[in-house]
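Ticket #4471: complex job returned nothing on first submit. Input attached below:
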Amino acid sequence: MARLALMAGPVAFFAVFFAYPVAAIVARGLEVDGVWRFGRIGDVLAQSDVRHVLWFTTWQALASTALTLLVALPGAYVFARFDFPGKQVLRAVVTVPFVLPTVVVGTAFLALVGRGGLLDELWGVRLDTTVWAILLAHVFFNYAVVVRTVGGLWAQLDPRQEEAARMLGASRARAWRQVTLPALAPAVAAAALMVFLFTFTSFGVVQILGGPAFSTLEVEIYRQTSQVFDLSTAAVLTLIQFAAVVAVLAVHAWTVRRRESALRLVDAATTARRPRGAGQWALLAGVLATVALLVVLPLAVLVQRSLGAPGFGYYRALTEADGGAFLVPPIEAIGNSLQYALAATAIAVVIGALAAAALTRRDAGRFVRGFDALLMLPLGVSAVTVGFGFLIALDEPPLDLRASWILVPLAQALVGVPFVVRTMLPVLRAVDGRLREAAAVLGASPWRVWREVDLPMVRRALLVAAGFAFAVSLGEFGATVFIARPDNPTLPVAVARLLGRPGDMNYGQAMALSTILMLVCAVALVVLERLRTDRSGEF
Amino acid sequence: MLLSLEGATVRFGGRAVLDAVGLEVAEHEVVSVLGPSGSGKSTLLRAVAGLQPLDAGRVRLDGRDQSGVPAHRREVGLMFQDHQLFPQRDVAGNIAFGPRMRGASRAEQRDRVQELLELVGLPGAGRRSVAALSGGEQQRVALARALAPRPRLMMLDEPLGQLDRSLRERLVVELRELFGRLGTTVLAVTHDQGEAFALADRVVVMRDGRIAQSGTPLEVWQRPADAFVARFLGFDNVVEATVSGQFAATPWGKVPVPEDALQGARTVLVRPSGVRIVAADAGLRCAVAARTFRGTHVAVRLQPEDAPSLEAACALRAAPEAGETVGVEFDAAEVVVLG
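Support reply: We reran it on our side without changes. The output follows.
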């Protein structure tokens, strides 16, 4: 019963601020004069341009996932098994892209491969008219997902298992294939699914790099809602994306459960050693080069472009209101973003911690496990739909929030909650249930058990979760672009607006603002890295 | 009665782990529950503690029904098998936990911690981290933590299970002495008969969720209730026999039994010390299959021609070599006719 009470908060939150707005916008699109027009689904699907978007969304997600695995798996191995100077710093560096706002990622790649970008200047090569810009940006963005999810488990696999196989007569390669690979497979699958999910619903990156030629479902939903005003097509596209995401999440939930099956794990610190022999040094060098080219270079170019005008001209321009795109100086977006993100973090931590506490028990029933998967949905449901849904659904009493500043943090918290839950759940589940029993027998009520036993153990994870929620809220774009008021833009919204206008000054200011956003995220991440332990979570 | 269980039943997926168990523990009594793993003895403790709901029956403490009373209000102590000390608290923090939950003031907590650390022989260890303790020290801290809130009933789950043998033998004597001095009522479970016999006023043997026998250590040792209890206590010379008068007809031939022995079809136990080795041409003819040095004596496994093997306890010098042929006679005083 107590567990159900704990879940009441998160359930109510998701019902009011997620399910209701999404349902409202679907209804707005498909219901005409009280009659449901499900026939619209068939009509929309029959359009060749919709089918083209669907096809592109799927294949670019598949291609991005495959490419990310190809590039990042050697990195996962190097981070798991090798010990080398600067490893901690490098681990933080590769994680920076993951917490970067998609808008910044898009801008950084635009600065690298776009018109007037680094490659354009050097060799006249432009990739922003090809799909490669999108794919590379997706790899950049998701490299850390694979390195962290797969590498984290790999580092904890007992190397003696492989040694046991060698003693039983297996060759080195065979031992890897027969012992290590099966143990890793669920983690690889889970990472691949996460990457697929993120790229399938990609918005900011494609919006900036895709141009007119390439459009994902999410971008198309945005275009239909805000430019074409064809709500019924947008509603159908939302439903299609929803169905696809539910299917992917179902597979994900299944692999996560398999991953929790009993693997013999050891302390990650004991399994890494210095590389030996030319082959291992070459592998390490290769991974370092990949990180330099793929992760460091785009960020460096972004910073370099932002300094393009003499005397920090672009940065100084940020402090001036030009009356065009903004009613206020763009620099004010920093303050807005920080305030919104802090509020969103507070909401996400409370809701996420309640949900994680409710989900902790391994004997959780089917209903609770279903809720587990449900919590992941906001990661995959069209953020654009959520944002527009907020405007449509939360505009009448008792929930007239349209004019309230809380609207933006609420939407941002929706994407923060899954991160909080995913970070805290493994730690909470690792707490030995008998410690709780020991406390109960000594006279601690259930609430005190949580405070005295669980909380001290998850305090660190809670901080890490809060950091992720903060970074994710800071970078949220799809929903915020709808609901942030013109005089209160967030950083990503301001960047997108600047990029949408012609001229070097706007371009330079976008670079400058992106650099600031990147620095804020990087600082948040450095703090996280100091806090996190190897056991705290999946991200 | 301080603790009484009536028809306590716990089922895991249809299988009864506790099967209508009735048990009473009087104040100041030390009771050991002895049984092989899977016999339901840990579940018994968890049911009393309120950590495992009963499917049927009831638990009473001081005569009051405990159904619906959550674990933290039962005021019983439980020492867990692997101690379950709180890793993020130091020794004093662990010991003070129970008094703190019951609202003791800081000064009271401090005094209680000091008192208990002296009691368990770790004075001044309050600031130490529990991770830095040895196995024996952890055991002492766990004991102090369980005793700190002055539980009316102290329960121990395999209290010495993870310690090495010599430490175990020393600690069991200390525990017995300590509980006697404090007048603590104790319910301990163990799979180690030596531990149970050394600790308890009364031993309860469990099998498959039921109580197979209950009695003083001497009673249980001298008169095991049935073949299961006898075998669990380490006796292997157990056979079906027909008792009539002063003799039992067994596969080993005619075995003399004590005067007051029950008559008819019975199970008969011959202690190893009651198997006397004589010249090969006298008594039951056996081959010596193996001999195992046991410190104070030699355990000899004897194989008669058409009967189950026998174990004999021989003095060091008198023990025959493996491969020899010997004769065997039985000593009525060391033969038990089981109920």
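The longest helix of chain B spans residues 165-182. Closing as resolved unless it happens again.
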